[in-house]
Design brief:
366 residues
């Protein structure tokens, strides 16, 4: 069974209401205007790619990382961007979405193409691409994952304790009010609240106002609901494949039969996961809410995004040196100014054994 045949089998198990591979991809609208935030995110993404390239090429004796993903320095609103964007959309329908990087064995690396083949038409490099060991989609995140998770642990404990304290206050001070037949169901609900059930409890604020004590009780229920909502918020950083990208990644794998991976670069660590593992995770509905969520990402034009707990992947870099950063002024047409942040330097320290494990080359020298 080829790699693509394995992916095809896994894709057939993904629920259609999550990703319907039988339907064509949604056609993207041409962006009309870039923002400072968009350019900063693009700069951060470019930095993350460079970090991975330098890390691999700096330590490996047998493999080499090459830039491959379609990219351009143009942004929406600049001359030539519309042409670039439409060519990119056409390529998505022809071969799928190029991963950001390709990994080749050095014995297959072709000097004539060099270390950046992102601007070479796919027809000229199609057979070369098929020789790659892996395609890597690099995602970046503006977080220190270890600091984030510790902060979220403390936060979750604080709101859990707050919710349980409010529950105990209600039961001890207002049980007589709740004992009325029209309100006694709340006693059973509150007695069932504990650190585990807070994660799944839905609570409606009653809206009582007819007496001072009922008003006080209603305010306590408002505070309880607010605390429960905080407890139930997603408390992990994620590897983030967009639903629309899954189809075009699938198309690329169908075209080239090269294994595909996602690397999530944080400012302190890097995690990797295979596309096959992503499909396995999202195919199991029991994983939703614990290992992954499906959200409309407000930071990415409300596109539906699958957010997989990063630590379900493999830690492929245990340390990342943060980059230098500086502000850049960019003048757009009609004199509109954009100010954004650019990143330079930084280093990822690879766990070579884990990297080889993720890439399926554990039995080869690196």
């Amino acid at each position: 069974m080829t790699y693509f045949e394995q992916i095809k089998d896994l894709a057939s198990r993904v629920p259609d209401n999550l990703v319907d591979f039988s339907l064509p991809r949604d056609v993207a609208r041409t962006p009309t205007q870039a923002s400072s935030n968009f350019i900063t995110n693009k700069e951060q993404g470019d930095w993350a790619e460079n970090v991975i390239v330098r890390a691999i090429n700096g330590v490996s004796e047998r493999f080499i990382a090459v830039k491959y993903g379609k990219s351009d320095d143009l942004v929406a609103g600049e001359e030539g961007f519309d042409t670039f964007f439409h060519e990119f959309q056409n390529e998505l329908d022809t071969i799928g979405k190029r991963p950001d990087l390709l990994i080749f064995r050095k014995s297959d690396f072709q000097e004539k193409f060099g270390y950046d083949i992102s601007h070479i038409p796919h027809k000229e490099i199609a057979e070369y691409v098929k020789q790659a060991v892996a395609g890597i989609e690099v995602r970046s995140s503006a977080f220190l994952i270890e600091h984030y998770e510790e902060a979220m642990r403390v936060r979750s404990e604080r709101y859990t304790q707050l919710a349980l304290n409010i529950k105990n206050e209600i039961l001890s001070a207002y049980r007589d009010v709740l004992s009325h037949p029209s309100r006694e169901a709340y006693i059973k609900l509150l007695e069932g609240l504990n650190a585990d059930t807070l994660q799944i409890t839905g609570l409606k604020v009653p809206g009582w106002r007819s007496t001072p004590r009922l008003c006080e009780l209603n305010e306590l229920f408002k505070r309880l609901r607010a605390a429960i909502k905080e407890v139930q918020k997603r408390d992990y950083l994620s590897i983030t494949p967009k639903v629309e990208d899954i189809k075009v990644v699938y198309k690329w794998i169908e075209t080239f039969n090269v294994p595909h991976y996602y690397f999530q670069v944080f400012f302190d660590k890097v995690y990797g996961i295979s596309f096959a593992e992503i499909l396995k995770i999202v195919s199991d509905p029991d994983n939703e809410g614990t290992i992954f969520t499906v959200e409309s990402d407000t930071k990415n034009q409300n596109k539906t995004t699958i957010k997989i707990r990063s630590k379900c992947g493999v830690e492929i870099a245990s340390k990342v040196d943060e980059p230098q950063h500086e502000s850049v002024r960019k003048e757009m047409e009609r004199g509109r100014l954009l100010f954004y942040v650019t990143f330079k330097g930084g280093m990822a320290y690879l766990d070579v054994a884990n990297l080889k494990k993720v890439l399926g080359i554990a039995n080869e020298d690196f």
